């Protein structure tokens, strides 16, 4: 009976007939979230949030706990897969004008911010050398906040340096925030079904709709199979592809790594941070690099929704994609010429997309009326 109800629910949720594979990443993100929660719960059972035991507990999980190596690798690789899917999901939203569904877009951007915070807290938990120093650099940015910066940093650390209370707090936050992500995801999906979804042409989807099942559910299953197969291939043959070699050493506050950098999915924001010499300016740019996504619904001035029919914005969009990849690469390099110059140029190009969006929309409207 429950299967019949499920099929009925799918049939009562019609979707646009022309949505493409790029719309499958929403279901892939939900699968990643479920996978992260299941593997994370397993790891939490065996993890010890103590600076003297955290690193050893990770080694214990991977070596001694049955299938612990698989759970640990799935959790680490799943985090990277989560961000790959969410960045593609956001890029699709920018390209096809999905941000014009304001509430859906704003809830999704809020989800991204919470997810990034959760991933940051989780990156610190293994208490490896890069985890410790990345946490030191990033949390120190709070001291740039006028008047209350030092107080905020001390509160977050639980003392005057990153120590045992810091690790305990980060573990608690990393465990609790996924429940917030579940709640926000539910709100995001409800808003999606209330406001509707976009489509490649940017037209009104109500004109031509088809049942979700079997037309799009089968595409979802195909993409999920490809994603999970890719994850298991990576886990089996190249499990450390996303790991920094420095993180295989226990955290040592007395030895600073030659190049401190966060996980790859934070590198674009870290590159923007590094491109500005001023600490407060860099911190503001770091926050703005993500928060600026929230401005997209309010700066759209074009009469056309999708970039499918906007060649100038297509050029800006692919410049943004190239900029994102370049700044991610440059952030892995030392802060020296030419990498610091590349970082500064790409940071300007990154923000230029959002600044130029309303200007190009206005220009397109002028040209269309000629």
From TrEMBL:
Residues of the Cytochrome b/b6 C-terminal region profile domain: 202-370
Domain of life per record: Eukaryota
Keyword Transcription regulation: no
Domain Cytochrome b/b6 N-terminal region profile: 1-201
GO MF annotation, one: oxidoreductase activity
Cofactor: binding details: Binds 2 heme groups non-covalently.
Keywords, ordered alphabetically: Electron transport, Heme, Iron, Membrane, Metal-binding, Mitochondrion, Mitochondrion inner membrane, Respiratory chain, Transmembrane, Transmembrane helix, Transport, Ubiquinone
Main localization category: mitochondrion
Name by which UniProt lists this protein: Cytochrome b
Taxonomic source organism: Elaphe taeniura
């Amino acid at each position: 009976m429950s299967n019949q109800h499920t099929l009925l629910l799918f049939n009562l949720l019609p979707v646009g007939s022309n949505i493409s594979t790029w719309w499958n990443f929403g279901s892939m993100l939900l699968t990643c979230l479920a996978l992260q929660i299941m593997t994370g719960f397993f790891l939490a059972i065996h993890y010890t949030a103590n600076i003297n035991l955290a690193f050893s507990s990770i080694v214990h999980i991977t070596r001694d706990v049955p299938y612990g190596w698989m759970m640990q690798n799935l959790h680490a690789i799943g985090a990277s897969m989560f961000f790959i899917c969410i960045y593609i999901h956001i890029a699709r939203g920018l390209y096809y004008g999905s941000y014009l569904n304001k509430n859906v877009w704003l809830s999704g951007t809020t989800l991204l911010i919470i997810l990034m915070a959760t991933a940051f807290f989780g990156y610190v938990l293994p208490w490896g050398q890069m985890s410790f120093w990345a946490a030191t650099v990033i949390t120190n940015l709070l001291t740039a906040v006028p008047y209350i910066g030092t107080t905020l940093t001390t509160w977050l650390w639980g003392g005057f340096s990153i120590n045992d209370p810091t690790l305990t707090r980060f573990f608690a936050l990393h465990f609790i925030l996924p429940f917030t992500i579940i709640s926000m995801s539910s709100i995001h999906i409800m808003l999606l079904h209330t406001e509707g979804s976009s489509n490649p042409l940017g037209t009104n989807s109500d004109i031509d709709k088809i049942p979700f099942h079997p037309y799009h559910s089968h595409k979802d299953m195909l993409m999920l199979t490809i994603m999970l197969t890719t994850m298991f291939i990576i886990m089996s043959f190249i499990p450390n592809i996303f790991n920094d070699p420095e993180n295989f050493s226990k955290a040592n506050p007395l030895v600073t790594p030659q190049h401190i950098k966060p996980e790859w999915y934070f590198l674009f924001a870290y590159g923007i941070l590094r491109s500005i010499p001023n600490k407060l300016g860099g911190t503001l740019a770091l926050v703005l690099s993500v928060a600026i996504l929230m401005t997209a619904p309010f700066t759209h001035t074009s009469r056309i929704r999708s970039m499918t029919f906007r060649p100038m914005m297509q050029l800006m969009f692919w410049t943004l994609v190239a900029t994102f990849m370049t700044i991610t690469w440059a952030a892995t390099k030392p802060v020296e010429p030419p990498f610091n110059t590349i970082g500064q140029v790409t940071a300007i190009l990154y923000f230029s997309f959002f600044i130029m969006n309303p200007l190009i929309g206005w220009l397109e409207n002028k040209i269309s009326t000629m």
